[in-house]
Design a protein that fits this description.
Structural class: mainly alpha
CATH superfamily of the largest domain: Tetratricopeptide repeat domain
Strand content: under 5%
Number of strands: 7
Distance between the termini: 24 Å
Number of domains: 4
Radius of gyration: 29 Å
CATH class of the largest domain: Mainly Alpha
Number of helices: 34
CATH architecture of the largest domain: Alpha Horseshoe
Largest sheet: 5 strands, parallel
Strand order of the largest sheet: 2-3-4-1-5
């Protein structure tokens, strides 16, 4: 067990802000594609139910020691069926599309009539801003009762401009598993295993899966259920012809609104009386908007917020703007650009500047504090500017306190930034944004792990006001909410010459990604950090990046790569005379060798770490290494030495009230007592570890402890208790967990009757 990984992130504490960060996406007009932040919603909304139940029993990670005399009840998984309801809020002011809605319903019924309960797929294709998302979401709400087992939704963000994060298929799949409240520690590592688990969860269910804004068929296929009874609705700017050919999808090509439908959309927002008073102006407005819902929505917002303006005046302004753009360019997108330009020119200068700078922001959405740093303005000044943009329908507050664009408006804002603002102004805004995320993430990372080796940051630029978290729970909530933004920030920093930001942001993200089980992302940001450090010729930064890649590749099972990066990290740390860095790397290599079953080599690395930590003088790190040395002695059949080293580690952990370290030490003590034949002492140690583990909400560690407790109970002759402990362990861990097959083998060796193994997860 990784007793020397110095960052405990209780899983239960992440739920509240994660839910706020992405669970509810509000589509304000028919013209909006679902905001880009919805991908984050899918990633986190599934943790809500499960983690809130877990958080209820989780204590503060530095709270009082649990009573060692109390044996906690064995955990039992909840048997309640989970019904995800991920559809975004119903579309406001939805108008028209009666033919298309009827077509979607007919396609569903026809598919069921022709193929029984076979999975049905429908695709909605059309140009940007034509209302694909609005149609899909509106129909999904109408049809929701046909899907009693739930509705899943993800915005795949397949057509976002460069610099904005795009949800990958892997992230979407992870989000669907979260939606079914599969705890993070039970989610398999590999994409194929996750896809298999997802299909198994949908087996025999009647569920709707909405895959919005897909780039191509390859992005969609891994997200298709493999079962009868499910319906998949896909939207895309492309026609996805291969889905029609191979998967038998029903295509629906979405055209512009009819003139009557466009008039209906305006009437729903402005009222029929106002339209009836100026019918010719309404006709001209519809013509200038090219019957695109997104453009009509912007005009409607301007008219609604200025009720004294006549529609004739608004139509004349649109005509003037269009004529001006026609004189500048023959671009065939001038219809929608003229509407955006007309609305943009009505903004106050300060609000217009903020709108332009938002087009430079690296992430899928933004908070007011981050927007304040981007603009270099006080937070109190930025809030009314954002409110003005919302009233103009140029940005959307898609969840409370988080703002985003329609992707066409993002592109327009970016275009205006390059047309109006100088290179220096744009560069300064981006650097302020990166400073904001770096300094906020750095402070939050230290709240997650107070013993982590610090790095030195330059002072934030003038105008940057980093956010602060009061404790590790708030820090974790901030990381959860900003997860996708931070990943995008790392990439943008590396792509724009901000190499220091790139590797330092990656450093700050390390603990959050590790304990959230985001192993591929951990490796990806590690590679980005390594490339950035090499471009800087910064050897200490390069050593840290290699060191963290050992961490990531070990967990991904890519052991050769982990070893290679470990050796490079050691070489660089030695060249820089960084004793702590050398020791940390030896600890990661101890973990690698342990996973490979090479315990003599693991012991050697642990001993070297202990020697180096002793020279450094950090007592908690010494305890980590003492515990690692003791653990390896136990694995090598030397329980007396294991007791000696682990008892020394335990004394340090208890003196510092470090309950996380005590969990791992009690485990190693239990293992040593087991191999000395003192089974009652071993059981007592394992129960001490389980008490602490459950108070900290460490399910992975809990499963491992239960597995070892089962071994001890078997050795003591209590086969029923052994069976019970192993079954509990299987109920916690993922199907492809490194220990899962071994535990199943032990249960089979007990000659358990067929069907008696209580392993509820599909395999």
């Amino acid at each position: 067990m990784a007793g020397w990984a110095r960052s405990g992130l209780p899983a239960g504490v992440s739920t509240a802000l994660a839910f706020l960060a992405g669970a509810f996406t509000n589509v304000f007009t028919q013209g909006w594609s679902l905001p880009v932040g919805a991908g984050l919603a899918v990633l986190v909304v599934g943790w809500v139910g499960w983690e809130m139940r877990q958080a209820a029993r989780a204590a503060d990670d530095r709270g009082p020691e649990p009573d060692p005399g109390t044996t906690p009840p064995d955990p039992t998984p909840s048997g309640a069926a989970v019904v995800p309801r991920q559809l975004p809020a119903a579309v406001r002011h939805f108008a028209g599309r009666s033919t298309e809605l009827a077509t979607l319903t007919r396609q569903l019924r026809q598919s069921r009539a022709d193929h029984g309960d076979a999975m049905a797929v429908s695709t909605i294709a059309g140009t940007a801003g034509i209302g694909k998302t609005a149609l899909a979401v509106h129909w999904a709400h109408q049809a929701a009762d046909d899907f009693p087992d739930g509705q899943l939704y993800v915005n795949l963000r397949g057509f976002e401009p460069a610099g904005a994060a795009m949800t990958t298929t892997a992230e979407a799949l992870r989000g669907f598993l979260d939606a079914f409240e599969v705890p993070p520690h039970r989610i398999p590592d590999s994409l194929d295993a996750q896809a298999a688990l997802y299909r198994s969860l949908l087996a025999g269910k009647r569920a709707l899966v909405v895959l919005d804004n897909a780039r191509d068929a390859d992005q969609v296929r891994p997200l298709l259920p493999g079962t009868v009874g499910c319906v998949v609705l896909v939207t895309s700017r492309n026609r996805l012809s291969s889905l029609v050919t191979v998967e038998g999808a029903h295509p629906l090509i979405l055209d512009l609104l009819t003139p009557d439908e466009a008039r209906e959309l305006l009437a729903r927002r402005l009222g029929t009386e106002r339209l009836a008073a100026e019918p010719e102006a309404v006709t001209e407005i519809i013509r200038h908007c090219a019957r695109l819902p997104v453009a009509l929505a912007v005009v409607a917002a301007r008219a609604a917020t200025n009720p004294t303006f006549t529609l004739t005046v608004l139509a004349a302004q649109l005509r003037e703007t269009r004529d001006r753009l026609d004189a500048l360019t023959d671009d065939d997108t001038n219809d929608v650009r003229s509407v955006f330009s007309w609305s943009y020119r009505s903004l106050t200068p300060e609000t217009a500047r903020l709108f332009r700078l938002l087009g430079l922001h690296p992430g899928p959405d933004i908070t007011a504090p981050a927007a304040a740093s981007l603009a270099g303005l006080p937070l109190a000044r930025v809030r009314p500017l954002l409110a003005e943009l919302v009233r103009a329908n140029l940005v959307v507050e898609h969840v409370p306190r988080r703002y985003t664009f329609h992707d066409l408006l993002r592109a327009y804002a970016n275009e205006q930034a390059y047309a109006v603002d100088s290179d220096d102004e744009r560069r300064a805004a981006l650097r302020r944004s990166l400073d904001h995320y770096l300094h906020t993430a750095y402070a939050a990372a230290h709240l997650l792990d107070r013993y982590r080796d610090p790095i030195t940051l330059p002072a934030p630029r003038p105008g940057v006001t980093p956010e602060s978290s009061a404790d590790h729970r708030q820090a974790l909530a901030w990381f959860t909410a900003e997860h996708q933004v931070l990943l995008a920030a790392v990439d943008v920093a590396a792509a724009t010459g901000s190499e220091n930001h790139a590797w330092q942001l990656a450093w700050a993200l390390d603990n959050f990604l590790w304990f959230g089980g985001h192993w591929p992302e951990l490796a990806e940001v590690g590679r980005t950090a390594l490339d950035a450090a090499r471009r800087l010729a910064d050897r200490p930064a390069e050593a840290r990046a290699h060191q963290n890649l050992v961490h990531a590749y070990t967990r991904l099972g890519r052991y050769d790569e982990a070893e290679r990066h470990g050796r490079q990290a050691l070489t660089l740390h030695r060249q820089g005379d960084n004793l702590a860095g050398q020791a940390h790397t030896h600890m990661f290599l101890t973990k690698l060798r342990t996973r490979q079953g090479r315990h003599a080599e693991a012991l050697d690395h642990a001993r070297q770490a202990l020697h180096l930590y002793t020279e450094v003088g950090e007592e908690i790190w010494q305890a980590d290494a003492l515990n690692a040395v003791g653990g390896q002695h136990g694995k090598l059949g030397e329980p007396e030495q294991a007791l000696d080293f682990c008892q020394r580690a335990l004394a340090i952990y208890q003196r510092h009230d470090d309950r996380r370290g005590q969990v791992w030490t009690w485990e190693n003590l239990g293992f040593a007592h087991h191999h000395l034949g003192d089974h009652p002492a071993a059981v007592a140690c394992y129960h001490r570890a389980l008490d602490l583990c459950r108070s900290l909400d460490y399910p992975d560690s809990e499963a491992e402890l239960l597995a070892q407790l089962g071994d001890t109970r078997q050795a003591a002759g209590d086969l029923d208790a052994a069976r019970d402990s192993w079954n509990q362990a299987l109920a916690i861990i993922a199907p492809d967990h490194v220990d899962a097959d071994g535990i199943r083998g032990k249960l089979r060796n007990l000659q358990v009757p067929t069907g008696a193994v209580d392993d509820p997860r599909p395999r």
